Amino acid sequence: MRTSFPDVDPEYRKGELVERTRPDYLHGRTQLLLGIFFEALRRKLSVYACAETRMKLREDLYLIPDIAVFWPSAPPLLPDSPPLVAIEVLSPDDRLSAVREKLQEYRAWGVTHVWLVDPHSRRLYTCDTGLTEVTSFTVPELSVSLGLAEIFD
User: Distance (Å, rounded) from C-alpha 37 to C-alpha 18?
Assistant: First the structure.
C-alpha cells in the first residue's frame, strides 16, 4: 500500500487494485468547496477534513473518499477508524452501481454521515439503506448544515 501511481491512486479491494475514475472540473471544484466549508470549521468545532486520503476499512479493503471529515480529533496518517462524514462526488465516468457499493462500505464501516454529490445535475443524496435525495446536508453533532448554495456556488 506504499506504492505510488503516476495517475490517479487506485483503491484496493479484496486483493485487487481498482482504478478510480478521472475527475473533471466540476468534480474538482465541488470537492474543493466541500473541503473549504469543513476546513473553515476546524478551529471552532475541532473537525479535521481531508481530501482523497486512503483509508483502511479492513485488511482487504482500502478506499479513498473524495472528502472525509473527522471529529473531534485528527486521524492517524492512515485512518483505520471511520470519519464522521464521508463524501463522494460523482464524475461523468462513474458507474452508479460501483458508487453505491462504495457508499454502503462506508456505512458498514460505521461512518455516520455518508453523502453523494452530483455536480452535473446539482443534486445531493444521503446514503442510509439506499440513496435519498436531499436539498441540504446536516451534521447534528456539529450543529451545521450545508446547502446547495454552499456546494454549487
Answer: 29
- From first CA to last CA, the distance across the chain in angstroms is 36
CA–CA separation, 123 and 134 (whole Å): 8
- Count CB neighbours of 70 within 10 A: 20
**DSSP per-residue string spanning 27-48:** HHHHHHHHHHHHHTTHHHH--E
pLDDT digits (tens, 9 = 90+) for 88-140: 999 988 888 889 999 999 999 999 999 999 999 999 999 998 999 999 999 99
Nearest to residue 85, comparing CAs of 136, 153, 38, 32? 38
Residue range(s) defining the domain that contains residue 115: 11-152
Distance CA 67, CA 117 (A): 11
Look at the chain and report how many structural domains it folds into. 1
Residue 81 lies in a domain: yes
Instruction: Provide the grid cell at 97.
Output: 452501481
CA distance 85 to 115: 8
Assigned C-alpha cell, 49:
477534513
Using DSSP's 3-state secondary structure scheme, residue 99 falls into: helix
